């Protein structure tokens, strides 16, 4: 990065790094039978695991976790259920309440993704050096909010203040 590039380049380079990793993971997932998945689906899988209780996650739970409407969450749920990544059930305390859990197919995606992220991390450590990559990670922890799995998008990104 040249010294005259301006401050705008830093967030763009961080985004490009994110995209490079995510795109590589999705190429690998496609090679293993998950070509229909999109990067947003990974966030949904994480949210289902975190927002749901022991019996699963509702569309409202998922919407709150992602910072989207219940209807938007419902559309994602419908797609992932049709593709075999979510299983619909009922809350044992309220049979009217639809809850969703990850299927074995979704668990396969999470396992494969974790392995791919580890391989990419190892490759980056080989390229940059283990100490330099560790410093970069420490710096990013210092510069970014503490919650790694904060999945919601700030509301004003799409709708304004």
Q: What's the layout of helices and strands?
A:
Layout: H1 9-31, H2 39-51, H3 59-66, H4 70-82, E1 86-91, E2 94-102, H5 104-128, H6 130-143, H7 156-159
Antiparallel strand pairs: 1-2
What can you tell me about this protein's structure?
- It is a single chain.
- By secondary structure, the protein is mainly α.
- 62% of the residues lie in helices and 9% in strands.
- Strands 1-2 form a two-stranded antiparallel sheet.
- Strand 1 (86-91) and strand 2 form a beta hairpin.
- Helix 1 (9-31) crosses helix 5 (104-128), helix 2 packs across helix 3 and helix 3 (59-66) packs across helix 4 (70-82).
- The model has no long low-confidence stretch (mean pLDDT 87).
Q: What are the key terms here?
A:
161 residues; mainly alpha
